[in-house]
Write a structure and sequence with these properties.
The complex is a heterodimer of chains A (155) and B (453).
Chain A: H1 3-15, E1 28-31, H2 32-35, E2 46-54, E3 57-66, H3 69-82, H4 87-91, H5 95-102, H6 107-130, H7 138-154
Antiparallel strand pairs in A: 1-2, 2-3
Chain B: H1 10-18, E1 33-34, H2 45-57, H3 69-79, H4 89-97, E2 105-108, H5 111-121, E3 129-133, H6 142-149, E4 154-158, H7 168-177, E5 180-186, H8 198-207, E6 211-215, H9 227-230, E7 234-238, E8 249-253, E9 282-285, E10 290-292, H10 306-322, H11 324-346, E11 352-354, E12 366-371, H12 379-387, E13 389-390, E14 392-393, H13 399-406, E15 421-426, H14 433-449
Helix pairs in contact in B: 2-10, 4-10, 7-8, 11-14, 12-14
The chains are: A alpha+beta (155), B alpha/beta (453).
């Protein structure tokens, strides 16, 4: 493990995995295995992410995992980064944002951040495609489609 | 350890390690430390040479299919040629396990294939029970589960004692009270390394007229196995776990259970039927019928892995030159050291547990441990990254037992503090004390990084 990850992970062990847990009937459910996203390179490593979204804002985000410490650090950071953000803003989260939160460099964590964002954006695109859009104007829909395209472009 | 047990000397070990090209590789300036021998073993140059010789010198069919120069060379290396003083690999294998005849040695692809030959060929009657141990590899579980699913057999198993050793009393109870037709058991567990008292089990089963199949994948490479002394009816093992090529396994079967008639329907109910038929299994065919070859050919359908079969003989001769007693004692010595060190360091933590008997002499070259700590995954990967130490993690194809022990879904996502993972170190004669020391130091470094210690 890289030094900054070790430091962050020890803090998690000491202070607790505050974002760990699950949500009943989440607005968005993400499964690394189902989406075939390789966040953890070890076979048998899986992460489930649960999001509740209200008025386009991520109100709650929780995760369950069976993964190595670096993956766990990455998913904890993801939760911290996207909570209380609009879906649009959350989708623009970058790998650099993860490293800033980590307060150090880690190639390994950066790879996992990229994987998590791929997973996150896939789930987001799916969610946005099924949310009722009746209350949106044509312009709103066009804007949303453009935003989705930009989200998918990130993948 | 008895003073009469032959040991592998330092000079001998150095010489042995020179035979393995893979041990000379380096990554990040460090040599490999290969401790996943229960999965598959490294291959010495003598075996690689045998494979190369086939492809460069006589790359043709064997089994007497053709009678030209190359084919004769292949056949005599597998079946032997006393006139030329060449011992065939089938004879080498026969002698290695002390079978009565080469006709009892069937080449297969691997242990799984060998077990399936018995499972699919055994003439079960409705209600017949197949009895297993509680820790079978999927290879000796899934073929039976399928038969059970089709209503052809019922499955049962013998639970281990509290000390995690074989429960002979439980076996006797099951044999006396269930309609057991076949006992099919892992001779040594790939999970714990524990070796069942096979000779006693076979004696008891035979007293009830019940046949015994042993999955010897984790036994035959590590200790002397004498099928006549055991009186076992069927024995399956893989050559790739004993310095041989991948894709070659052996099914030993007592000759009387392998058949001798031209047609399956003429055989007695004790005889297993060949389940894959085609080229190389029959003497002749008409548009309406076929006549079977004798064993072992009737079980060896299609073009075979001739280089693999030839190299299998080379692998066994290599082990014989070292000596099975030496191989066994080297593994025991290393496992004793590792067990003692790990228990001294982490035995009292509550989150570190060795699976199977604590006494390393009962676990051969296998040491599997459980770590129940947050994010217990990824340690095998870290060991490889840091020191080129190669060990296995996961469920080792023994999901059934582990699901019972830890609960179904124990490897599914959960809270980090609920994580657990199993790691298996599996040793072979070419491993050294220095390698074990590096494994221990690297493991401790990882534990420190993760604040486990």
């Amino acid at each position: 493990m890289d030094e900054p990850v070790i430091k962050y992970y020890r803090r998690l062990l000491k202070e607790g995995f505050k974002n760990a847990g699950s949500l009943e009937s989440p607005s968005i459910f993400l499964d690394t295995a189902e989406e075939e996203v390789s966040i953890c390179s070890v076979i048998g490593n899986y992460i489930h992410i649960f999001l509740n979204v209200k008025n386009d804002i991520i109100e709650t985000i929780k995760y369950l995992c069976i993964c190595d410490p670096t993956s766990n650090v990455a998913v904890e950071i993801l939760c911290d980064l996207v909570k209380d953000k609009t879906l649009e803003a959350a989708a623009t989260t970058t790998e650099e944002s993860f490293l800033e939160e980590l307060e150090g460099k880690s190639e390994e964590l950066q790879k996992k951040a990229a994987g998590l964002m791929e997973l996150f954006c896939k789930g987001l695109a799916r969610y946005q495609s099924i949310v009722p859009q009746n209350n949106l104007s044509n312009n709103d829909i066009k804007e949303k489609e453009a935003r989705q395209a930009s989200v998918l472009g990130l993948i | 350890m008895s003073a009469t047990v032959p040991m592998i000397s330092k000079a001998m070990l150095d010489s042995i390690r020179e035979d393995f090209p893979a041990l000379k590789k380096k990554r990040n300036g460090l040599p490999p430390i290969y401790l996943d021998n229960a999965c598959t073993t490294l291959v010495p140059k003598q075996v690689i040479d045998a494979i190369n010789e086939y492809y460069t010198t006589y790359p043709a069919c064997g089994e007497g299919r053709s009678r030209y120069w190359f084919a004769e060379d292949v056949t005599c290396r597998i079946e032997g040629d006393s006139g030329k003083g060449i011992k065939g690999s089938r004879q080498i294998i026969r002698e290695f396990i002390n079978a009565r005849s080469e006709k009892e040695i069937i080449f297969t692809s691997n242990t799984t294939h060998a077990i399936n030959i018995v499972a699919l060929g055994f003439r079960f009657k409705p209600g017949d029970v197949v009895l297993l141990t509680d820790k079978e590899h999927n290879s000796n579980l899934v073929p039976w589960l399928r038969l059970q699913g089709k209503g052809l057999i019922k499955l049962d198993h013998v639970d281990s004692t509290q000390d995690d050793i074989f429960d002979l009393e439980n076996l006797k109870y099951k044999l006396a009270n269930r309609k057991v037709r076949l006992v099919s058991m892992a001779y040594s567990s790939n999970l714990t390394g524990y070796t069942i008292p096979a000779k006693d089990i076979i004696k008891i089963a035979h007293d009830y007229g019940i046949k015994v199949l042993l999955d010897g994948a984790q036994t035959v490479p590590h200790k002397t196995v004498d099928v006549q002394d055991l009186d076992v009816d069927f024995l399956a093992f893989s050559i790739h776990k004993m310095c041989g090529p991948k894709g070659v396994g052996i099914l030993y079967g007592k000759r009387e259970f392998l058949g001798q008639k031209l047609h399956e329907s003429d055989e007695t109910p004790d005889v297993i039927e060949p389940t894959i038929l085609g080229g190389g299994t029959v003497t002749e065919t008409t548009y309406d019928s076929y006549s079977l070859l004798n064993p072992p050919e009737r079980f060896e359908a299609g073009i075979q892995d001739y280089p693999g079969q030839i190299a299998a003989g080379s692998a066994i001769e290599y082990l014989q030159r070292i000596g099975m007693n030496r191989i066994n004692s080297q593994e025991n010595q290393l496992n004793h050291f590792l067990t003692e060190q790990l228990l001294n360091r982490y035995g009292e933590t509550g989150w570190f547990k060795i699976l199977g008997p604590h006494d390393s002499s009962q676990r051969g070259g296998i040491l599997t441990f459980e770590i129940k700590r947050p994010n217990a995954l990824g340690i095998a990967e870290e060991l490889s990254k840091k020191s080129n130490v190669m060990i296995r993690d996961g469920a080792f194809c023994v999901h059934s037992f582990l699901n019972k022990k830890f609960g179904q879904g124990w490897m599914r996502p959960g809270l980090p503090q609920e994580h657990r993972m199993l790691y298996r170190v599996s040793l072979y004669f070419y491993n050294t004390m220095d390698e074990c020391q590096i494994f221990l130091e690297t493991l401790n470094e990882i534990f420190e990084e993760r604040s486990y210690v």
